[in-house]
Fold:
Amino acid sequence: MMAEEWELGVGARVRTAREERGLTTRALASLAGLSQSLLSDVENGRTVPSVASLYAIAEALGTGPAELLPQDDDSARLTEHGVPLPSAGPGEAVSTRMLYGAPGRRIEVYMSSYPPGQTDPEPFQHSGEDIIMVLEGRMTLTVGDRDQELRAGDAAWLDSSAPHSIQPLGRTGVRIIVITAR
Structure:
């Protein structure tokens, strides 16, 4: 599936889910803590939501983020290089690609790269569980009020309903894989 088709597919699924629940764009935007203009851009395929925004929209709709992704009926799926997702806001340099996620599936996989000094803008939380694997670099994973240093080759499990954030350590930044199960 090409990136443009993917963007339109996400927007159409968000719109359909919103309309099925009888919500206006203003109401859904308010529930998700997003601007109405951002939600409109998503629904019209002009932008792809960031990971945080996708989760916020899904939570506001009472569903999982994978349910908002375009349908793929294959029993096996190859994603070449993933689908790039935009940053959470201006000044954020974190690069995130969705490597896998599909409606009806409980697993989503993301690869993120954090340059040195770039932290998550705020702690993130959502339903489900995460496994974070460090591919390159070092980082501090904060879950609630607990910090844990992770290095390349390390992995951590967390209950993702707890607020969590990532801070790269050192001069090289950090590259991670996040596997989310709902």
Summary: The CA atoms of residues 84 and 97 lie 4 Å apart. The radius of gyration is 16 Å. The first strand starts at residue 83 and ends at 85. The mean pLDDT is 83.
